[in-house]
User: What shape does this take?
Amino acid sequence: MELRARGWWLLCAAAALVACARGDPASKSRSCSEVRQIYGAKGFSLSDVPQAEISGEHLRICPQGYTCCTSEMEENLANHSRMELETALHDSSRALQATLATQLHGIDDHFQRLLNDSERTLQDAFPGAFGDLYTQNTRAFRDLYAELRLYYRGANLHLEETLAEFWARLLERLFKQLHPQLLLPDDYLDCLGKQAEALRPFGDAPRELRLRATRAFVAARSFVQGLGVASDVVRKVAQVPLAPECSRAVMKLVYCAHCRGVPGARPCPDYCRNVLKGCLANQADLDAEWRNLLDSMVLITDKFWGPSGAENVIGSVHMWLAEAINALQDNKDTLTAKVIQGCGNPKVNPHGSGPEEKRRRGKLALQEKSSTGTLEKLVSEAKAQLRDIQDYWISLPGTLCSEKMAMSPASDDRCWNGISKGRYLPEVMGDGLANQINNPEVEVDITKPDMTIRQQIMQLKIMTNRLRGAYGGNDVDFQDASDDGSGSGSGGGCPDDACGRRVSKKSSSSRTPLTHALPGLSEQEGQKTSAATRPEPHYFFLLFLFTLVLAAARPSMIVQASTCTGV
Assistant: This one.
């Protein structure tokens, strides 16, 4: 009786399939007019586009039911969808680069203007106040400002050594000018230089300038460099090509609904997010170091304010120089006595003039310029922008889905789920490469991170170390010997437990041995169960009848029958 029941069930199922394939009005081919219109609007020829749906066994990406797409159409649309995503990524990248460039140019121009204004004030005020003490040494002052600019722009200079050399050269030249009646050979000037630290000929000005300038210039240039590095990372990541698996998934997401004859069905939200999370898995791994960099940049702006802040110090270099020359003139007699005591009596210059003839006893008192509020405004805008872009890399899939992929506003029976119109059931994957191990839409090899992006993660780390060092007032050596280029950044590589769980999608559809499918069933019991469930001869007769019924249908019956589901 049980076998007879099975036989009747098979016969009924066969009859239903035949009826669906032959006579059901729902199985009739639908018009492709809407698809033709959309396809032609994209610039493709309509010569080979079918007027009505055709059998889709030739499709390689889209579902193989009835379709409005030929193989050539599928290939054209696949290339077009990849180009559209690449364009969207480049547009997003350019917009972010433009934002960073705007902030960089504004703040960079302000700091350079401060230094230029300081030098201009020096050039205007020093000749009248110091006479020959300045005019005969204009090159030394000009060289100092040139080196300060180079340092600010990132040149490989040691600022403290640069300042020390400037003060040493200036002391030699000014001491000779203050004592034209004396012969001061090189060995005597060398002795003077060795005693300079103890004699403090320029008072506290050199020490104050060294301490404040180092902190101020390091903070200013590291912030501007951070903006530059961030922009450069965005530019280089935008050049990373899309993987072939991503291109296929994007085609299925965007245009397979057209091929399926439902061009009005928009991608389900979670479906779109899974596709782009898989496509941009490596990019999402930038997130942790990107946030670290931006946080460090916001923090370093604290060093722009106050008496020792970047704005006050960079714009006031000339004031320390004036203070130094004033101190040298005021302490000239005491200094001379101490130098003679330490280095001996120099010979008199028979052709030299008296000390009072060449010396200008002028003193320069300069007022500090009050802040215009320009830097405060620039920094406030920059900090707001940096906070806005902190989650750029992990929000990119959702942003593209919302703005570029014509995503459906809700996941319901009317959105495209990759196969038909209907709800999308799989869960949304997490962010980053390691979380794509079970992505249902894009096959991602989590053991092979993109090396270009790993290199950019390392650049972000290095720049963050610069900023952290600058916050402490240190001009750090930027290369961290403990870091290598292997991409040890966040999300890099493959966690052991994740790699152990990785299962190939191709193998997941293979048949499962009976002893594995039924937990607790021994291999021997499994063999017994298999033998017990072997069909009787009558069962083969019923299968033969079922085959005859199928043979009576058209060869494309199976394909047509799939349309009975309402796809």
